[in-house]
Amino acid sequence: MVVKALPITPISDLRARARELVAAARKEPMVITQRGRPQVVMLSYESYNEMVARLERLEDLEDIRDMLERQEELRRPFAEYLAERQRGV
Prior knowledge:
By secondary structure, the protein is an alpha+beta fold. Helices cover 66% and strands 16% of the residues. It contains three helices and three strands. The protein has a three-stranded mixed sheet. The longest helix is centred in the last third of the chain and has 43 residues, at 45-87. The N and C termini lie far apart (53 Å).
C-alpha cells in the first residue's frame, strides 16, 4: 500500500483562506499545522464517515476472529476426549 503525502497548511492560512481550503479538503485530506507542527487533519465529512465505517468493519472482523479462536480452543479438549475414547482410555 502506497501512502500519499498530504498537503500541509499552516493554521494562519486556514484563517485567511477558509473557504478555499475547505473546498480543497473535500477533494483531499490536508494537515493543518500550528507553529510548524501537525495538529489536525481536515477531510470531507463523507471521507470521515467512510473511514469510520471501515474501522467498524475491521473491528467486527477482529471480534469474529477472536470468537473463532476461542471456539477452536474449546473444541481442542473435546477432540482430545474423542481421541481418548477411540483408543479406549
